Amino acid sequence: MTARVGVVTFPGSLDDRDAARAVRISGAEPVSLWHGDADLKGVDAVVLPGGFSYGDYLRCGAIARFAPIMSELVPAARSGALPVLGICNGFQILCESHLLPGALTRNSSRHFICRDQTLRIEATTTAWTNGYAPGQEVVIPLKSGEGSYVAEAATLDELERDGRIVARYVGTAPNGSQRGIAGITNEHGNVVGLMPHPEHAVEALTGPSVDGLGFFTSLLSHLASGSPVGAGAR
Amino acid sequence: MARVVVDVMLKPEILDPQGQAIVGACGRLGFEGVTQVRQGKRFEVEIEGELDDARLADVRRLAETLLANPVIEDFELRVE
Q1: Which of A132, A157, A198, B9 sits at a 20 to 30 Å CA gap from A184?
Q2: CB proximity A110 to B under 8 Å
Q3: Window B:10-49, CB contacts with A under 8 Å
Q4: Which fold has domain B2-79?
């Protein structure tokens, strides 16, 4: 059966259509989810896309965290059952929701950064990265103004010790992220937050590479290998 | 009606690029001797009725759940 992957649209989401397209190209069925509905429509996984949810008012992701859809998503994700990929603003939402530790703050350079970025994939046992080789370098677009990852030193040590750093920037982190962190996962490996945009690198015509497709095909392998619990399936 | 002011500041160890940009502007404008600026947020929360301890505790909870992100920010409450 074709996997059904939800993509949440918040007011101010920009990359929901690209995320849905990436889901489709990977071979799954994208399902549109609306921030105002506390209904995951029984999807097998969810992508929180990039953009500026609620205009980034207060802090990036701070208001989206309390959207009705999140009341369904957060418990399902926290239990380890529901795979969730938060990209850029989605990563910020995951941190604000405390599904992932730490926070994303303004780029140390003070500039919005938009460029093709080389990353090194480190954790390859997560629901979203199992198709990559450990240490594999990929090129995907980075476009964010508040992408500098910060956390307490003890948290950073724990992430490194437990192999929960999903990706690091190759070379100096362009946004000042601590320990070069571009993406992390939770203790179950089902929730992944990533600052750069794999959904923009899934087709040669429109992206710098097709390196981002692996996040979406990894999910399909993950779903095929286990017996995923369809969130909210009634 | 009562008013509670909530001041939110980035924790001292968190880099504040906006503050640094302001320091840069100070120099260019001729305001000498400004060595550091930290930028924060001020919220004025108006509450209907009397502000008792329970209400104040509610505002404190509001501050720590929504107005501030305790991972990167500290906050202070005061009643005006």
Answers
A1: B9
A2: yes
A3: 10, 14-15, 17-18, 20-21
A4: Mth169; Chain: A , (3.30.1280)
Distance of CA A57 to the CA centre of its chain: 20
Task: Report which DSSP code applies to B64.
Answer: I
Of the listed ranges A72-76, A131-135, A177-181, A228-232, the least confidently predicted one is A228-232
CATH homologous superfamily of A4-225 equals: Class I glutamine amidotransferase (GATase) domain (3.40.50.880)
Angle at A58 between CA A153 and CA A187, to 5 degrees: 40
> For chain A, what are the domain ranges?
4-225
Residues of B in contact with A105 (CB under 8 A): 10, 14-15, 72
| Residue among A225, A111, A108 at smallest CA distance from A176 | A108
Chain A to chain B Cβ contacts (< 8 Å) = 34
Apex A150 CA angle, A147 and A154, nearest 5: 155
- Catalytic (active site) residue A111: no
Q: Is there a catalytic annotation at residue A95?
A: no
Helices (H), B1-80: 17-29, 53-62
Does the annotation mark A199 as catalytic? Answer: yes
**pTM, entire model:** 0.93
A74 touches chain B (CB under 8 A): no
End-to-end CA distance of chain B: 11
Partners of A8 in beta bridges: A33
- Interhelix angle A16-26/A213-225, rounded to 10 degrees, is 60
Question: Any idea which residue has 């990167």 for tokens?
Answer: B72
3-state helix, strand, coil in chain A (%, to 5): 30, 25, 45
